[in-house]
Amino acid sequence: MRPDPSDIAARRLRSVSNRRGFNSQPLKPKSNKKFGLVVMGLAFLGSLVLLAQNYKQIGQYMNRPITKVRMDNQWQHVSEAEVGSLITNFMGAGFFNFDVAGVKSTLEAHAWVEEASIKRLWPDMLTLQLTEHVAIARWGEGELLNQHGEIFVPVDIGEMNALPILSGPINSQIKVMEQYQLMSQLLYSSGLKLNGLTLSMRGSWELTLNESIQVAVGRIEVVERFQRFIDFYEGQLVSQTAKISSVDLRYDNGIAIRNSSDELAEVAIR
Question: Which DSSP symbol is given to 159?
Answer without folding.
Answer: G
